[in-house]
Amino acid sequence: MFRVLMGAALAVCVAAAFPQHFGLMPDRQAQSTDMVQAAKLTAAEEPSGDRRAVGYRRNGQFTFNALLNGRNVRVLVDTGATSVAINRSTARRIGIRLNDSDFRHTATTANGKTKFATATIRKIRIDGVVVRNVQAAVLSDHSLNGTLLGMSFLNKLKTFEIKGNTLTMVQ
Description:
Number of helices: 3
Order of helices and strands: HEEEEEHEEEEHEE
CATH topology: Cathepsin D, subunit A, domain 1
Structural class: alpha+beta
CATH architecture: Beta Barrel
Radius of gyration: 15 Å
Shape: globular
């Protein structure tokens, strides 16, 4: 629960700090705090040529194995997060180099205030769905231990839809 509250608080702060980079947030879908359970992922080509990724809810959440700048990263879909949120170790692993001075933005989270940097992820791929130049917030490792796939990714899709226990993303 702590991580979800922290992520939600960060999302609000990032949106306030960078409103020009982010769209409006839709209603939050049901989510839980357990990032351990995996979701099966399949992809299919639509007759129209749309690229599609489908995930199945486990314990109230959708998780995917994604490629961020070509590196495998487990992500949790969070429609309440304004942007993609990664920690500093993940940023380094996917080729984003930051200096301590880049962490100049402050977010108030459930755990108090924390510094974060902004970055752009060149490419996020989930099966056939590929999204380029995605805005992200980078937090310290102790502030975030997973990766949140927020609206800065989802808003770049043609559509995404949650029906029951199925999330469908179409590009």
